[in-house]
Structure formats: structure tokens, C-alpha cells
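fyi for ur records
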Amino acid sequence: MEQKKVDEVKVEQEQVTENKSGYIHLKKFHFIMLLFLLVFLSAGITTFALAFGKEKVVSVAPERTEFNKLYEAFDTLNNGYYKDVNQQKLINGAIDGMVSSLDDPYSDYMSNEEAKSFHSSISSSFEGIGAEIQEKEGHIIIVSPIKGSPAEKAGLKPNDMIISVDGKSLQGMNSTQAVTLIRGKKGTKVELSIQRPGTDAPMTVPIIRDTIPIETVYGEMIDDTIAKVQITSFSTNTSKELVTTLNDLQKKGMKGLVLDLRQNPGGLLDQAISITSMFVPKGKIIVKEEDRNGKIKEIPSQNDGNTDYPLVVLIDKGSASASEIFAAAVKESAGVPLVGEKSFGKGTVQTAADFKDGSNLKYTIAKWLTPNGNWIHKKGIMPDVEVALPEYATLPIINPDKELALSTSSTDVQTAQKMLKAVGYDPGREDGFFDENTKEAVIAFQTAQGLPADGVLKGDSTMKLMDLLREKIKTNDTQLQKAVEVLKGKMK
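which gave:
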């Protein structure tokens, strides 16, 4: 009986155990289904939140974690700024900020419109004032005006600082942003506020925009045997233009050549190499490029480079970049003498990358070195024969809208007095006070030019005075005269 009870108890315990095990197994199944349901709901909620909640426009790729902060800043502004933001403008601003942080005046991010202007300036014509500019230490500086352009006719000079355009300050702008303000339709007027080195006060320069043709080579015979060729920039067709011009001058009896690179701001590297190869013997080094790792690539002359006539090259402080590559190469690899003033000093090479939306990134990829390995950046190239233009060639322009009359006193009056003296109407003083003698000099000048002789400088009288001064500078070009003298010494 006792054994029977014990067996019954065991059976009962086993049943309880079995029932208990079955109960637990059932609960596990429900638990797994519950987890599956929760995961499904969580995925759905997440999808809904991403689709209809706060927008996360940018997904961060795990392998590019360095952009996390940038993406977070974008999302913060996009979602939290007090008014709607232009997403593309934010992105453009971020790229522009990256480029600006390089502290390189020759690297720029360009919007669609700015990129169009950049491409047109080296390959066709454009409408504007015709001046090469650059950003330097937060300011916009003129490198050089283009020959025959409104900028040159208005008297703008290398190293002039453009303070404002139509009253809008350029402080903090890069060169591409400044170009957008300065350029405009042909026939429209733009007013530049210019600060010239050595002058106390800014001057207002009104300029009428025009079509600026990219004709880059101008040739003429100085006498029966000597020709002068001016290259104003190194653009798409410059080498072809130069070949045509030289062939024409040879037919006219050219035996010696003065190549004028004054006020040439540079341009395309391939054009500089092609043109330099015309004057440097084949195989001789034209330029060296040094990359970020210090690796140097040598670029030799591509053609025979054995012209049949002596050569002298003119440079000045407006000669920059590609024109400096040419000048250094012919000097160091072909023994060609340089005459004039120290060049600008730009020793870096840029390339441009176009984006699908038409915008553009121009950035520095290398240093360039002269054939002898010199880096002329911010130093310039010293000419073999240093010659300055007359003092009056550096006089600032006068705003023709200003009236200069008896008893007035200003730096403009002082400039006018120096101009009058230079063109043959000496006012007897150059201290900036408009006295009776100054008035008499103005009247004599106006009478000789067929202008109303009222003794007041304004409008047409001011413009004519500056035109006469430009002609005086051209006929008394001391740098060209010295270049011809040096050339004749080589032709003997």
C-alpha cells in the first residue's frame, strides 16, 4: 500500500512537471511572436517618421565620418532656422567656405553664372570693363587692365584697390564674386571706388562697360627692321594669333623683335608652353611643376625654337602668371634679355573642375618653378635692364564728374596740375591749389583743343586732358625705347 502511494505521488509529480513544461513552451511561442510584432511595428514607425517627420536630407556614410559635423550643421539649419532656407545655397556656401579656408586668392568656387563668365573670359568675348583682378589679403586688387579696354581708357593701373562697385563694398569678397558685380551689359555704367597706392583718398571712377574681345596679339613695325608684338593675355587662340602676326611682320622686313608682355595677367598654361616653345631650343626646359609631395615634373620646349631674329622681352608689375613663365623661360633657357620693371610674382598653377550643375571649382594644383628651379611667387622676376616709365605715367585718374575750378584745393587739382605740365601747359605749381595761373593753363589747354575756354576742368575737358596724357605716355615710352636700344645691340 505504501509503495502504491509512493508510485501515485511520483506519477502525479511527473504529470505536474509535464504540464508545467507544456505551459512554459506555450509562453515562449507567444513571446517570440510578440517580439516579431514589435520589430515590425518599430520598422513601420521609423519609416513613417523618416517619410513625414523632420527631414534628414543627408545620410552619413560610415566610411566618411569626417563629414558628420558638416551634415549635422546642415540638418540643424535646414530644420531649425527661423525661416525656410535654400538648400542649394547652403551647400554652395559650404563649398565656398572650404575653398576660402585655403587662404589662396587663386582658388575659387564659382556658381553657374560665375563659371560661365570664367570660361568666356579665356575663350571668347565678354561684356564688362576689361580688367584682370585678384583677391589679396581681403581686398580686390587690379592685376592689369586689358589693352584697349574701358578699364585701360579710364586709367586703371596694376595694384589699384577696388573698394566698392556702385556703392557696394567688396570687403571680404573673393575675385569671382567681385567680377560678378563689375561685369554687365555693354553700354551700362559702373562706378568703381579706387584706392591707388601712394594716394590719400579714394577716387570714384565711372566706366561704361563694353564688349571685350579676346584678341590677344597686336603687331607693328617700329622701323624698317624692328617689330613690336604685344601679347595681352594667353587665351585659347593666342599661339595661332602670334604665328599669323609674326609671319605678316616677316613679310614686312622684320629682323628683330620686341615682345611686349607688360600688363599681361597670364592665362592658359598650355598656351604659354606652346608660345615659349617658339623661342626656346627644343629639349630645353620651359617650366617645372612641383606637386604637393615635392615631386617635380619638367616641361621641355616642344618645337625647334630657333627663330632667325634677335628677341628682347618687355615686362612690368602687371606681367603675371603665364607671362612670367614665358619671361623666365626665354631668359634662363634661351638667353633672351628682359627689359622694364619687376614682374607681379604669381608662381602657382590652377586647374578647373566643372560640376554637373554648371558650377565650377578652380583650385591650385602645383607650384611652378623657372628652368633654374627658382620659385618667383610673391617675388617677381627682375629684368636684366631695369627701366621705369616717366612719373606722369603713374598719375591717378580724375573723376570727370568733379568740377575743378578757381580757389579749390584737392589731390585731384594736384593731379590735374601735373597732367597739364606733362602735356605742355605748365600751371607753375603742383601743390593742389587751383590759382589764377592754373586757370590760365586750363584756358590755354581748352583753347588749343577746341573746348569751351572757361578755365574749369570737368566733363569733356577732364577726359581730353587724360587722353592727351595717354598719348604722351605712348610716344615717350622709355621702356620700349630701351628695349629697342638693347635689341639693336644684339642685331649688330
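The first helix runs from residue 2 to 52. thats all i got for now
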